[in-house]
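::Amino acid chain::
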Amino acid sequence: MGLELKIASANMEHWIVADGELIDGRKRKPRDFETKLAWAKSVFGATRPHIIGMQEIYDDSIQKAFEDFGPYKFHYSGGARQQVALATTLPLAGEPDAIKMIQQLEKPIEITRNGLTLKVDSLSRPILRARLVHEGETLTVFVAHLKSKIPSYGDDPQQTYPEEELLTADFSARPLGNLVSLARRAAEAAALRREVVQEAEAFPDRPIIVCGDLNDDAGAVTTDMVLGDSMRTFIENRHQLSDEQLDIIYGRLHQHLLTSAQDAQTRTSAQSEFHTAVHEGRFSTLDHVFLSRHFFPKPRVVRGVFKQSYFFNYYEVANDHLVDDASEFAPRKPASTDHGVVFVYCKKAAAAAPLDAEPAHVAPNQPNDLALV
């Protein structure tokens, strides 16, 4: 298998077999399916990722995209439209619930705070959790597709609500549709983060990968919710705490840490923007791959022995096929997808590097404080 670990995340934009019914009732033309299939084969065949997290999968015909270049196993949530899926060359871990679909929440995301009441007990699309084995190491992969930015004006998508009628709509009420979508996406981000935290606490030495269409940019609140608290999180009354208490805090932050592969790349690259979507002239990064602490060196403020399991090497986005569909002058390109495909390249660490002497805790405004790399 080799020490390299290649990860991809791809929203496949209504992937469905030839003559299958699309979300608007139209049928997928056989010629369009074959064109899209050829495109998928070229994109994935060039890199042959070990792990491919996918969104907007309507059926298992996506397996045809991988049949020519590897023994991929396909795991699919099935059921209703726009589901998530995982294609992987890695075997499942030999443990219960090695593959799990999470949609109905055992514990709802529920708050009653600051005059706001919110309760979400099911996700718009399931989270796929897979426990896989790579080079003798078990790792956990989450594939997710959070609620879109499309405004939600009512419960029935087949019905037209007053706010949608631009001729007569109350324009002061239209933002409430965005509010509903944002609230749901935030709740789903909280649910995904909860799953990550539970996995990190149950298996502290197990690498975690989160990949998916999170429907918001890097730096957006909902995206940061999935990443969780950073090593630079403000510590209240920091200078009144003992070194032992700080050790506990930094250790806990590190245990639950996720890092965006895009952010890791921009630290060492002149390129600072990698877009995965273009809409109404806006370039966005909606598709992400997040990596746990096991892919990066230990921060200097974290004491004790830590095993780095992998090295993060490179991040890239295949986005040459993207056009702004809102522009009447945009060129029409062959069937592919309206999202860029994210690729992340890592390598298995042969052994944990020996640790130097432990540094003293330094003030948070020092240049080297809390450095991840």
